[in-house]
Design goal:
There is one protein chain. The chain has helices spanning 17-34, 39-50, 53-68, 86-97, 102-109, 116-132; strands at residues 74-76, 153-155. It has one domain. It starts with 16 loop residues before the first helix and ends with a strand. The protein is 53% helix and 4% strand. Helix 2 runs antiparallel to helix 3. By secondary structure, the chain is mostly helical.
């Protein structure tokens, strides 16, 4: 089955390399949490290896803001899952639209976060840093997140 972050049938289905890196970072963070390990070192290593130390530092700050402001546990699939959970999609889509529409990004994150403004500010900076690395996240404006079966891993 093809790996998808598509928001509907009219959008390009394949995730971009930047989206793939963010998704890998999310899953690395969650896996570290599930194993009782601090996620910062592992996530920084995964992100920096493929981008830069600046991108890695921004990713860590973004994830810390997500964790601190969450309304409930964020559902993250395991690394072997083909599709992205609705929460993963919301986080990645919001980061993609951060460059052009902060309000839309905040709306996407409202079900996950108490105050999505800080997370969106960091998402904009992270997407800009990814762009400098040649890996920008696109603004997928053609629909909302795709619903998937229940997530297999939960970020606590």
């Amino acid at each position: 089955m093809r790996d998808r972050l598509a928001v509907d049938a009219t959008c390009p289905a394949a995730p971009t390399p930047g989206e793939r890196i963010v998704l890998d970072g999310l899953r690395c963070w969650a896996a570290s949490r599930m194993h009782g390990e601090p996620p910062i070192v592992a996530a920084r290593r995964v992100i920096a290896w493929r981008t830069s130390e600046r991108v890695a530092a921004l990713f860590v700050a973004w994830m810390q803001a997500v964790e601190e402001g969450r309304r409930r546990p964020i559902h993250i699939h395991c690394r072997r899952c083909g599709g992205a959970s609705t929460d993963e999609q919301r986080l990645i889509l919001a980061m993609g639209v951060a460059a052009i529409d902060m309000e839309l990004g905040e709306t996407l994150l409202a079900p996950l976060l108490i105050d999505p403004a800080t997370v969106m500010a960091l998402a904009r900076a992270l997407n800009a840093a990814l762009s400098v690395s040649g890996l920008p996240l696109p603004a997928r404006l053609c629909g909302g997140p795709v619903l998937h079966e229940a997530a297999k891993v939960t970020l606590h």
